[in-house]
Amino acid sequence: MEILSRMRHTAAVLGLCAALVAVPAAASAEPTAPKTPSIPLVSTEQVMPHLRALQSIADRTGGNRAHGTKGFQQWLAYVKGVLDEAGFRTSLRPFTHNGVLGHNLIADWPGGDPDHVVLVGAHLDSVEAGPGMNDNGSGSAAVLATAVAMSRAGVAPKRHLRFAWWGAEEQGLIGSKDYVRKLSAGGRKKIDVYLNFDMTGSMNVQQWLVVHDDPRATDAFEAYFAAKSLPTFDIGIGGSDHESFGDAGIPVSGFTTGVGNCLHDACDRIDNVDPGTETVSTNAVLGVTWQLAAR
Q1: From the CB of residue 286, how many other CB atoms can be counted at a distance below 10 Å?
Q2: From CA 230, how far away is CA 51, in angstroms rounded?
Q3: Is the pLDDT reported for residue 292 higher than 80?
Q4: What are the structural domain ranges in the chain?
Q5: Residue 28 has what pLDDT?
């Protein structure tokens, strides 16, 4: 994440989806309205395997997942495979940067109002110096685990749910800028909010840094963390892929747990990701996405 390296001064869940229970009513009573399914819980065991797979990919492909590398291509294929199996409609969106082919991965969940889209994303690449397990394996794994949890719950949202994994963020937000640039004016208006997650499993986290733009999303994140007595700090738009959307007038939010113990170096391995923090963050992604999509 570009700008958070300049923020070192900043101090850097609900049961499994409940089965609906029908209560017999007297013949003269009004029919009982269906209950809204509870937001599912993602466990550590459901998110950390994605990060272990990522570390394995980096280890066998030169130690990183930078733009244009085998590591990036294999991580892209892994994420796409998980989403395809979960029932998403996936598509690869190509772009070229510095003469090298890159891709964004888009995954749409069937249903929901296509004129009102909740878009959730994270960047998929790393710097060349290391595997990027926190930056941004953690964010991309949190978004992936959220998508899988939505699928398992059989969610039928009012708004259309779209997930995205961006390429070449570390090169200057290239993938997300390309995606936004190729949207029509009408396509931009259909995105009610973009939620971005860049570094969600930092060690020694002090605060969850919440992007303060879209009021509904910002309030939802702050309420989520406050309910768990976890401190937050508001930050502005900039430094990661939400900037690409904010610059285009699309409402944004999301959060980060900060730079942690290692940034943009070989030490950003899986032991640089705190499983507890990553699990809390994943459930925050899931909980707020669920709420926004249901409205």
Answers
A1: 27
A2: 24
A3: yes
A4: 3-12+43-294
A5: 35
Name which of 271, 186, 196 is nearest 238 in CA terms.
196
Q: Is the overall model pTM greater than 0.85, yes or no?
A: yes
Q: Provide, rounded to the nearest whole percent, the portion of the chain with pLDDT above 90.
A: 86
DSSP line for 126-188: --TTS--IIIIIIHHHHHHHHHHHHHHHT---SEEEEEEEES-GGGTSHHHHHHHHHS-HHHH
**Residue among 169, 222, 243, 278 flagged as catalytic:** 169
Q: Does domain 3-12+43-294 have CATH number 3.40.630.10?
A: yes
Give me the residue label for tokens 């979960």: 86
Residue 294 CA, chain-centre distance (Å), reads: 17
- Please indicate whether residue 30 is annotated as part of the active site: no
Token pair listed for 246: 């904010």
Q: Give pLDDT tens digits for 78-87.
A: 999 999 999 9
Residue 265 in contact with residue 126, Cβ under 8 Å?
no
Count CB atoms within 10 A of the CB of residue 285: 27
Q: How far is CA 263 from CA 63, 87, 256, 269, in A?
A: 15, 34, 13, 10
Specify burial of residue 83 (Cβ count, 10 A radius: 0-12, 13-18, 19+): buried
* 234: pLDDT strictly greater than 90: yes
Which tokens is 114 given? 């296509």
For residue 257, pLDDT over 60 is answered with: yes
Alpha helices (H) in the chain, listed in sequence order: 44-60, 70-85, 139-153, 174-182, 185-190, 215-227, 242-246, 275-294
| Distances, alpha carbon 183 to alpha carbons 34, 104, 186, 276, in Å | 37, 14, 8, 37
pLDDT tens for residues 260-282?
Answer: 999 999 999 999 999 999 999 99
In the predicted structure, residue 250 carries a pLDDT above the cut 50: yes
- Angle separating helix axes 275-294 and 215-227, nearest 10 degrees: 130
pLDDT of residue 141: 99
Count of C-beta atoms within a 10 Å radius of residue 4: 24
Half-sphere exposure of 108 (CA within 13 A, CB side): 13
